[in-house]
């Protein structure tokens, strides 16, 4: 499936918009589905490459929502000593956004 250019451009716009999204999510009491889909664009840039077996980045396939939430929360809390990028990334997300991302990537079509 020829996806890279599409996801790279989505990831770039996700990074550009994340400050605005954080502000709107805070005032609306949590991220909307649309907001989560934009946040998730930054994740698939790395993790779809993992799913394709072309990098050592782990695939997000096969995790339940609860497993994803607990892994992301552990990264955020600094409880995964061997981790490299995920602890830094997760410090930029609040618990509602982490819950939204876990829900998103638990859907087979999203990953
Ligand atoms: C720069 C590339 C990169 C980006 C962007 C990225 N990840 Fe990761 N992810 C990694 C790497 C590398 C690991 C392995 C742990 C580590 O070294 O931090 C990982 C591990 C994980 C794991 C644990 C998988 C397992 O097998 O235990 C989850 C869940 C995860 N990432 C979710 C996400 C989500 C959700 C996002 C978007 C907010 C995201 N990642 C963005 C590279 C990335």
The Cα radius of gyration reads 13 Å
Average pLDDT reading: 79
CATH superfamily membership, which one? Answer: Cytochrome c-like domain
Kindly name the structural category.
Answer: mainly alpha
InterPro entries: Cyt_c-like_dom, Cyt_c-like_dom_sf
Domain Cytochrome c: 25-109
Protein name: Cytochrome c domain-containing protein
Signal peptide: 1-28
Question: What does the model show?
Answer:
The structure is a single chain. This protein is mainly α. It has a single domain (4-110), classed as Orthogonal Bundle (Cytochrome Bc1 Complex, Chain D, domain 2), CATH 1.10.760.10. It has 5 helices and no strands. It starts with a helix and ends in a 6-residue tail after the last helix. Residues 6-27 have low confidence and may be disordered. Bound molecules: heme C. Heme C binds next to helix 2, helix 3, helix 4 and helix 5.
Task: Offer a quick outline of the entry.
The chain is mostly helical. It has five helices and no strands. The chain is globular.
């Amino acid at each position: 499936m020829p996806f890279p250019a599409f996801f790279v451009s989505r990831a770039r716009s996700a990074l550009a918009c994340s400050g605005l999204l954080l502000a709107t999510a805070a005032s609306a009491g949590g991220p909307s589905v649309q907001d989560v889909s934009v946040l998730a664009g930054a994740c698939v840039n790395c993790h779809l490459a993992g799913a394709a077996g072309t990098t050592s980045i782990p695939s997000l396939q096969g995790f339940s929502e609860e497993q994803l939430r607990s892994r992301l929360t552990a990264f955020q809390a600094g409880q995964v000593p061997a981790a490299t990028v995920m602890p830094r990334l997760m410090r930029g997300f609040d618990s509602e956004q982490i819950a939204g991302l876990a829900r998103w990537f638990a859907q087979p079509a999203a990953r």
